[in-house]
């Protein structure tokens, strides 16, 4: 029984004494887009690399379409990896500059022994067309393209083996804002056209809003909120999510939101020296507003259901309105 394409259970990735990913459990449903958001250092890239077995999990399980990925090797890993592909932040460093676009797109097919030269070239033309490029660009080199066009090429390469899952790690962060929307719209289109499941990683909540069905917010290696898109943006339950949303530049007359924005300017604590209890405590506006309740420093808040479709890791998730905000 699985409509989950990806099922991550209690995943932990340690580098020495630091848990870059700490007991993360997430499910990606087939055909779903899950946005994974957090500041740099929150563990979102490390988690995605552990899914692909680029980083080794220290503990936990990662099931892809029901099959355990952790510890998979050789032919079995290769077969599974074919079905999940990655799109990176900087297309120009992920595309070999010495290869033509055509050769870059043919290569995965060659590696997997797919097709004939003629059929592979036809497939390349088809994929370039699908991502909105003229198939004639196959004779050119990656550096001849703008960032947005190069990302289209990287997406075409990721899609050429007909994967079921795409993990996109900040695929638009290096692009101009006007181009970002084009690439996101392309991914939205491709997702429904090709029935893809998508894990879309970003450091900014605004970026994943349009594309995500659900959003997971990470802070210092842990998921602190996981919610259906409209719940997360409409009624964020975790103070960190609220702070991230308040940093999204929207016209807002509430001076309290200004205040929140400033409070979050506090530095991210060192992962090697986390505060006790809730790791967000050192920056948490709600903790301050509630008069520093002891439970926040004593007990790690579990990710727990707030309302159906929304979970948060905060002892006071139901009381975020104690900090002045839109509904205060
Ligand atoms: Fe803030 Fe306490 Fe909630 Fe942590 S558990 S987010 S410190 S209120
Ligand atoms: Mg990253």
Automatic annotation (TrEMBL):
Belongs to the ABC transporter superfamily. It is a peripheral membrane protein. This is ATP-binding cassette domain-containing protein. One of its GO terms (cellular component) is plasma membrane. The keyword Nucleotide-binding applies. It comes from the Bacteria. It comes from Devosia sediminis. It is found in: Cell inner membrane. Keywords: ATP-binding, Nucleotide-binding, Transport. SUPFAM superfamilies: P-loop containing nucleoside triphosphate hydrolases (SSF52540). Signal peptide: none annotated. Its main location: membrane.
């Amino acid at each position: 029984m699985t409509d989950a394409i990806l099922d991550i259970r209690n995943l932990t990735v340690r580098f020495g004494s630091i848990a870059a990913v700490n007991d993360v459990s997430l499910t990606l449903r087939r055909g779903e887009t899950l946005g994974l958001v957090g500041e740099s250092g929150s563990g979102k890239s490390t988690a995605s690399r552990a899914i692909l077995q680029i980083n080794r999990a220290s503990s936990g399980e990662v099931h892809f379409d029901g099959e355990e990925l952790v510890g998979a090797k050789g032919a079995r890993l290769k077969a599974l990896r074919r079905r999940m592909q990655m799109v990176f932040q900087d297309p120009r460093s992920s595309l070999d500059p010495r290869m033509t676009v055509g050769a870059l797109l043919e290569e995965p097919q060659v590696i997997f022994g797919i097709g004939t030269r003629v059929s592979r070239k036809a497939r390349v033309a088809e994929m370039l067309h699908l991502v909105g490029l003229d198939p004639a660009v196959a004779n050119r080199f990656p550096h001849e393209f703008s960032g947005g066009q190069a990302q289209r090429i990287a997406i075409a390469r990721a899609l050429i083996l007909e994967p079921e899952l795409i993990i996109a790690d900040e695929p638009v962060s290096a692009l101009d804002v006007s181009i970002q929307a084009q690439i996101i719209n392309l991914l939205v289109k491709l997702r429904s056209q090709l029935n893809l499941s998508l894990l879309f990683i970003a450091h900014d909540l605004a970026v994943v809003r349009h594309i995500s069905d659900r959003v997971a917010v990470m802070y210092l290696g842990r998921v602190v909120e996981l919610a259906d898109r409209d719940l997360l943006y409409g009624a964020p339950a975790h103070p960190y999510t609220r702070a991230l949303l308040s940093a999204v530049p929207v016209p807002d007359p509430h001076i309290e939101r200004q205040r929140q924005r400033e409070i979050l300017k506090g530095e991210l604590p060192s992962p090697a020296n986390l505060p006790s209890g809730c790791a967000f405590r050192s920056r948490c506006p709600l903790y301050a507003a509630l008069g520093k309740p002891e439970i926040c420093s004593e007990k790690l808040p579990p990710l727990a259901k707030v309302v159906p479709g929304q979970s948060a890791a905060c002892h006071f998730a139901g009381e975020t309105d104690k900090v002045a905000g839109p509904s205060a």
